[in-house]
Structures are given as structure tokens and as C-alpha cells.
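Could you join me in thinking about how sequence relates to backbone shape in a protein? Would you write everything just below, so we can both look at the same thing?
***
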Amino acid sequence: MASNKDFPVIFELSKEGRVGYSLPELDVPEMDLTEGLDGEYIRTELADLPEVSELQIMRHYTALSKRNHGVDSGFYPLGSCTMKYNPKINEDVARFTGFSHIHPLQEGKTVQGALYLMHDLQTSLQEITGMHQVTIQPAAGAHGEWTGLMMIRAYHEHNGDINRTKVIVPDSAHGTNPASATVAGFEAITVKSDERGLVDLEDLKRVVGDDTAALMLTNPNTLGLFEEHIIEMAQIVHNAGGKLYYDGANLNAILGYARPGDMGFDVVHLNLHKTFTGPHGGGGPGSGPVGVTEELAAFLPKPILTKKEDMYVFDYNRPLSIGRVKPYYGNFGINVRAYTYIRTMGPKGLKQVSENAVLNANYMMRRLEKEFDLPFTQHCKHEFVLSGKRQKKLGVRTLDIAKRLLDFGYHPPTIYFPLNVEEAMMIEPTETESKETLDEFIDVMIQIAKEAEENPEIVQEAPHTTVISRLDETLAARKPVLRYQR
């Protein structure tokens, strides 16, 4: 971590003799913890740690926290990430002692309340997605993708259909889709988008065949557009013997209006840390439940939580299961938060979520389409993609626009993605932002577009107000400095 005159790092605050902690008196017999260890692993000198007071270390970490951007501190329009506000009631419920002080190795009869919640969450997600059965075991979205694809693979192999080795992925898809397909042992095949940003049906017919295991798709797609021909696409894939996989990253746009199961999808993964307000970013934790049709239910990860008479129990007798995909039973704390959100909102509230998310995105898109290129002009759903081609001709890249936004306290949108849009900026406001916040962000974007025309240097050299100014990104990628150096 680099230091600067305004914010010395913790080592530079160190003065011999200062102590920032205190330990309670030892109330157990002393033990030689080095017994049996190889000598080379035993420390003979004290660790070279900073010596600071409690006040200094509190100020240090408080100052660090203020440098971090999150949904609680500012607008976070990161496309396809659904960085919506995380209601604090979720945190309160997750901290109930009946949820936070239990252990996954407890006997089932001692944690029936927790098992009830898990079972009811599965049932709720089944209803929301139109799936026959759901597992909440996967740890995150990409993990859910892999889990779903492994079930599809197991299904085909169980039927002796071992030549289905290819997974079709749109050219606008999330990067995790082809990656998950590869990790699951498939070959990823690209299907093109048409001039309206939707899957090209003729190209889909061309690439689908006897070797097709599945088509991976999110709907709305990564351009924020609803795939109008989804029923026909499902028929094309199913007629070829393949399965249809739903990437749930964009589910926030259709809650209460459309269900993947009704569109013909066979497998669905969800991102509880996106659509259902679990905190995410910075490495997790997430949660990626997977729902399947009745045809694929036998292949779900085990154990499956079921109800027998008046007890909730785990069923391990699943001979066709792909096996356990995560230790214990999933990221329970995130699942508690999602369950709280679903029960708080109810069916009408979840429907309103999508209405507001779509309204916010379309409002922003129409106000910005005059200042930036809009590659697809039809109404969007929860997010939209602008292009900075016009600004690039003036010497200002999309990366420069993103850096300039930092000067105004905004996290930039997703940039250079999807890959099929030149100089892409993917913006997702979510439903939790007010019109005032949207207008303030729009005004800043318009100002930056004007600066690109009249004073491009101020954009090209941004950011100007952040603690660390523009980095040499090539050098940072090739020779990263990952530890403090004195």
C-alpha cells in the first residue's frame, strides 16, 4: 500500500512502546504450542508489526473505510451487477441468535427453525422462477452456472447421449458463461446477435445440432433487451435434444411479470446477492441457488432438504445426484437475508421492484441518448448500453469517461462490455435510486460529454480529486505491487 503526505500507512505511525490492544488474563494452563513442530516453523523473533495506540489504529481503519465505495455511500450503476441497496432489516434478522449461533453439524431436530427457513426459501424461489425444485447449496452465480451445467451433463450421460459436448453462448453473454461451460467439460460455441441486439435465430439454427448440450442465455440479455423470440428459441434447442439454461443475473427486470420456467428454460441459477439484496462485491459471500424442471430434479446436488411428516430433514439417498457442490448446505447467512427480503416485499412488492428498475433505466437511457451513441434504440429493461464512439473520435475513450466519473463521487458503470458494442458503457440504476440521484448522475454524464468536446484534456487526465491519480494500468497489470514496501 503506497503512502502519501495526507495519509501515512500504519507502519509509518509506529512508535516503540505503543500498544493498541489488551488481552484478558490467562485463565487456562499454559501449553507449549511448539511441541512437535519442525524447528524451521518456530518463530525465534517477534513479528515486525507496527506499534500504535488504539486511537491511531481506529482512525487508520476508519479512514480506509471512507475510501471504499459501496451502495451505502453512493450511486453504483454497475451494469449486470444489480448493486441495489441492502435493507438493514436483513442484517438484523441474519443476526438473530437462532440463525447466527447455530452450527451445520448440529442434529436436525435442534435447528428446525433454520431448516424451515431454507425449505421455505426453496419453495419461494420455485414459485418466482417457475421451476419444479431448487437447491440453495451453490455459493455464487458462476458456481450456480457450473452446477447447472454439470446437471445437464449428467442428464445427457444418463441417457447415453454422450456426444453432446457443446454449449451455445450468445456473443453478448456474461464472460462467466463460456468459462463455466469450459470448466464443466463442454466446448463453448458462439451464436451471433442480430441488428436489434437479440439472438439471431438463423444463426442459432445454424449452430444447434446433435452435439448441442445446452443454450446458455439471460433474459433480458446483457444489452438490457428482452429476447422476444424466447419461445421459438426454446423450441429450436429442445427439438435438437438440448437444454435451455437461464443465467439469472438479470432477473431483477422481470420479477412478477415473467418466469424462466414459463419461457421454456430447464435450468435456472439465481444471484441472491443481486436480485434479493444480499451484500456482494469484494469477494463475496454470494449465493447462487439453482432450480430445475422435474426432468432434471434427480441430478440436483445432495443432500436435498425435504419435509417428512412434521420434521425437515436432509435426503442423501439421491443415486443420480451430481454430489455435494459446497461444504455444508450453502451460504446460510446470505440465504437468510434473501428470505427476509422476499417475505418483506411479498409478491406485489417484488413486481414493483421490476417496474421501478425498468422505469429508472429507460428514463436514464432516453435522457442520455442525445449525448452518447445508443446502439439499440428500443425500450430497455433494467439496464442499457451506451457507446462512447462519438467521444472516442475526440480523443476521449470510455475508460477516460469512467475515470472522470470518480471526480464526482460516482462508481463508474461497467465498461467495454458487452464485447459486441464498441466503447461500451453498461448502466444499471436499479429500483432503489431516487429520481434526484438519477438526474444528478445524468447531469454529470452530460457535463463529461461536453468536456470531451470543449476540454478533452480534463477527461483524459482524470481522476483529479481521488487519493491516487491515474495509474499506469499496463504496468500495474504486469508488475503489480501487492504488499507494503518500506
User: Anything to note?
Assistant: Residues 355-477 form a domain with the Aspartate Aminotransferase, domain 1 fold (CATH 3.90.1150.10).
